Amino acid sequence: KGIFLPYCPGCGREELLQAVGIVGAIIMPHNIFLHSSLVKTRAIDRSKKEEVKEANMYFLTESCLALFVSFLINLFVMAVFGEAFYHQRNEDVHNKCVNSSVSRYASIFPINNETVSVDIYQGGVILGCYFGAAALYIWAVGILAAGQSSTMTGTYAGQFVMEGFLQLRWSRFTRVLFTRSLAILPTLFVAAFRDVSQLTGMNDLLNVLQSILLPFAVLPVLTFTSLRPL
């Protein structure tokens, strides 16, 4: 339960928001365009069914391996966070942090009996409190790598969309500057005038929006790839 069978007793609006956001965070709409375009990178004679069949087999194998590794990574993350967060109170986490090597962060958790509620920042702190300072830095590097990966895939997807649908031929510098500005400027604005909690809320909202946009990305791709004249 909870991994293969959806199960969440007593869940409300916030939990539902996170569940929908997880779908958008994993199956991002722009990656559908990116992965659809990557099949063009393999030089094959598409008039020969044998070569197309062989290429599909390699793409299937590659996708299965990548998704399996991704599943294992996400499973490990969920297991570690479940061990650290499940049925934990703010007071428990505070006391744990006080007696750890990252005790300077203990003040971010109030001393009360409420169930601990974490965001990206507090999640890293709790990992540091329970598993040592090294876990805190590993979490930070992981967040940085995830952000860079998401930015790169967004840039590549934008390149394929602009070159394929819109027939735009921008230089690489102009394309990267435009797409990264659209992604970074709103975040910098929120970071300058708000705090980490607002950044986390904005991230959750963006993931939900990505989940809602999935049909609008999937249907055009399926339609265009099914039309023989195209």
UniProtKB/TrEMBL annotation:
It comes from the Eukaryota. One of its GO terms (biological process) is iron ion transport. It is found in: Late endosome membrane; Lysosome membrane. Pfam families: Nramp. InterPro entries: NRAMP_fam. It is a multi-pass membrane protein. Keywords: Endosome, Glycoprotein, Ion transport, Iron, Iron transport, Lysosome, Membrane, Transmembrane, Transmembrane helix, Transport. The chain crosses the membrane at residues 16-34, 55-81, 120-146, 176-193, 205-227. The keyword Transmembrane helix applies. One of its GO terms (cellular component) is lysosomal membrane. It catalyses: Zn(2+)(in) + H(+)(out) = Zn(2+)(out) + H(+)(in); Mn(2+)(in) + H(+)(out) = Mn(2+)(out) + H(+)(in); Fe(2+)(in) + H(+)(out) = Fe(2+)(out) + H(+)(in). The keyword Magnesium does not apply. One of its GO terms (molecular function) is metal ion transmembrane transporter activity. Macrophage-specific antiporter that fluxes metal ions in either direction against a proton gradient. Localized to late endosomal lysosomal membranes, delivers bivalent cations from the cytosol into these acidic compartments where they may directly affect antimicrobial activity. Involved in iron metabolism and host natural resistance to infection with intracellular parasites. PANTHER family: NATURAL RESISTANCE-ASSOCIATED MACROPHAGE PROTEIN 1, SOLUTE CARRIER PROTEIN FAMILY 11 MEMBER. Belongs to the NRAMP family. This is Natural resistance-associated macrophage protein 1.
